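can u do me a favor
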């Protein structure tokens, strides 16, 4: 077994983006628990088992999604002439059968970690939450696989953006908050929306880069449906929307100007908007994927810090 090929298929550069929502939800959730305790002292979020199990679960789902994407696009020929990183199934480095085994093993391991996370977070006292989160775990596995695998793969029908927004944004942020607090904070849907929109922006860049090959292989992403110019406008809306929802949350929870620390993360994002606006060769957008993903990760850290200082 070529371990390096599986590491490449896991696409490690996507992992910071996948855990951004967990960071935001965990920081605010743990701070909320701490604020409601009078005599007890709670550990910082990074010292809790809930945080690290949530991180591992999310990474598992992301790696599964990347394996499934490599497998699905590989067997359909979509990756035969793709730009950017080589894909392992299409290049022959990993056979379809081997990738399916990797997907099954990743699914089992991730589900086991998720069950442990649910038990530690909710115990026996919150059975309703336990059932809901277990079902969400199964839904996450199904969503990761069905993105490009099968005849009804939703990534081939322009629905990828919606699922990324829901799972990377709303579920990641609000879900991790509930793991700590056992309650829902409706205002948290604002920063969750910010993370979801920025995650969709990364996918949009990916689809803009691949739109020629995607169109050839009938992968009707939103970019293929919209066309280049409208896809650019859509990209601007995603980034500006993320800024607006984050600012709204801070305004509604305002205590100090330090809460606007997250604005630093939008500096490279505005440079990205300029690059996208001037772009002609789609292959040049590959380097922008990493920039927006890391900017989202930076936003998550700075946003969280700003809310607890």
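np, heres the sequence
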């Amino acid at each position: 077994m070529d371990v390096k090929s599986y590491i490449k298929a896991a696409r490690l550069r996507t992992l910071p983006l996948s855990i951004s929502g967990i960071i935001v939800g965990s920081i605010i959730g743990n701070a909320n628990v701490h604020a409601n305790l009078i005599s007890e002292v709670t550990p910082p979020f990074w010292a809790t088992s809930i945080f690290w199990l949530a991180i591992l679960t999310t990474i598992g789902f992301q790696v599964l999604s990347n394996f499934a994407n490599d497998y699905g696009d590989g067997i359909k020929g979509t990756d035969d002439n793709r730009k950017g990183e080589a894909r392992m199934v299409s290049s022959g480095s990993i056979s379809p059968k081997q990738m399916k085994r990797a997907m099954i093993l990743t699914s089992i391991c991730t589900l086991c970690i998720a069950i442990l996370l649910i038990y530690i977070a909710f115990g026996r006292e919150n059975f309703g939450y336990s059932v809901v989160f277990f079902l969400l775990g199964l839904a996450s596995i199904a969503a990761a696989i069905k993105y490009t695998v099968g005849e009804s793969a939703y990534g081939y029908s322009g629905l990828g953006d919606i699922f990324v927004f829901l799972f990377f944004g709303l579920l990641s942020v609000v879900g991790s908050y509930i793991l700590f607090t056992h309650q829902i904070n409706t205002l948290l849907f604002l920063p969750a929306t910010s993370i979801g929109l920025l995650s969709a922006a990364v996918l949009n860049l990916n689809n803009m880069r691949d739109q020629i090959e995607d169109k050839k292989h009938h992968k009707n992403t939103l970019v293929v449906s919209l066309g280049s110019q409208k896809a650019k406008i859509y990209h601007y809306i995603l980034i500006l929307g993320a800024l607006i929802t984050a600012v709204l949350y801070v305004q509604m929870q305002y205590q100090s100007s330090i809460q606007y620390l997250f604005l630093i993360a939008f500096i490279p994002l505005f440079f990205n908007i300029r690059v996208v606006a001037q772009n002609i060769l789609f292959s040049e957008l590959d380097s922008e994927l990493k920039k927006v993903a890391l900017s989202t990760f930076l936003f998550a850290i700075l946003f969280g810090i700003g809310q607890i200082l």
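The radius of gyration is 19 Å. hope that helps!!
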